[in-house]
Amino acid sequence: MKWIFKTVFLCLALTVFITAGLMTTAMAEPPAGGQATAQAAESPKPSRYLVATYFHNTFRCPTCKTIEAFSAETINSHFAEQLKNGSLVWRAVNVDEPGNAHYVQDYQLYTKHLILSEVRDGKETRWKDLKEIWTTVRNREKFDQYVVSEITDWLKEP
Fold this sequence. Notes:
By secondary structure, the protein is of the alpha+beta class. 54% of the residues lie in helices and 20% in strands. It has 7 helices and 4 strands. A 4-stranded mixed sheet has the order 2-1-3-4. It is globular, with a radius of gyration of 19 Å. It starts with a helix and ends with a helix.
């Protein structure tokens, strides 16, 4: 009987240790593109601008991290001028952080998403879930083409 208590205690201790380790690792990683987010927040915005947001939660798989990194790299490399003049904003948002939970309902989020939205005179007028990030993430060229094409099309509209 004594060995059962030892086994249960060991399993509980191991579970707590692994959970604490995972939480510490997840919280210690800065989001990719964080620097761009800070820069975008400082830029004056025109009356119409686009916002590309990668929504994630605290725990992320390797593919989720790749999608975020690819999104940040693609947007920063192809739209540097738009990021600089404020016509495009790039950001990553953790929906698990206080104050961000409403995004789950606002955009009907159920996993990690790259949402492109248009803001006119301070109000969001439309948005689109760039769902093909999941089917193109294994092909960097297709991923870039897809994201660049979507953003370029939206930027062209008056």
